[in-house]
Design brief:
Length: 118
């Protein structure tokens, strides 16, 4: 099991930026894919961004491409989500998740709220 703890959410104005952090522990992450998901009120959880820990390859949802950046710090076992040019519709609880390559995401953090004011 991988334990995940998110931080960095809060209230931000539209057009602003915020960086989320996800500290991982319990496993070596070299065989994992790390992901950020979000869930807005009344909506299903959706994929935002993913990163393959071993080679740093990344992928993004179309809705955030060009505005959000996922990255990692190997020494800190931490994955980040830099969110720029925030829009009201980015308001959601953001979750960090981990999956062994080829498997579904089965390790989840507790979530952190990001609220974008228009």
């Amino acid at each position: 099991q991988v334990q995940l703890v998110e931080s960095g959410g809060g209230l931000v104005q539209a057009g602003g930026s915020v960086r989320l952090s996800c500290a991982a522990s319990g496993r070596t992450l070299s065989s994992y894919i790390m992901g950020w998901f979000r869930q807005a009120p009344g909506k299903e959880r959706e994929f935002v961004a993913g990163l393959t820990w071993s080679d740093g390859n990344t992928g993004y949802a179309n809705s955030v491409k060009g505005r959000f950046t996922i990255s990692r710090d190997n020494a800190k076992n931490t994955v980040y989500l830099q969110m720029n040019s925030l829009k009201y519709e980015d308001t959601a609880v953001y979750y960090c998740a981990a999956a062994r390559r080829g498997q579904t995401y089965d390790n989840w953090g507790q979530g952190t709220q990001v609220t974008v004011s228009s």
